[in-house]
Here is the input.
Amino acid sequence: MIAGAVARHTVTVVRAPLVGDGRGNLTRDWTSAAEFDSAGWAIDAGSTSEDETNRDGSSTGYTLRGPLAADLTATDRVRLFGELFVVDGGVLRQPGPTPLTSHSIIRLERWEG
Here is the structure.
């Protein structure tokens, strides 16, 4: 059974509302962001890299695998281990032959320095 093979974790999703910028465009207002928990995620360590130009710069990444219908979008941010990450790319929905093998795949990235 796949569901029992991996420890499942809860992550915090940070979602900012869309607001007008006064010029007819909509942008995310991160000062008014709401946070909510999302359960059922497997967290895999991703990669780290260093910015060759800026020696103080580095990135850290994780991959989340969780519920197929998870309420998480490409414009959300995710709080994981006390740090805030952005979604790298989009949210991949991977249907499987059964509900137990169907899941969402999300890459997270965080830059420092």
Notes: DSSP finds no helices and nine strands in the chain. The mean pLDDT is 85. Residues 2-112 form a domain with the Thrombin, subunit H fold (CATH 2.40.10). The two ends are 42 Å apart (CA to CA).
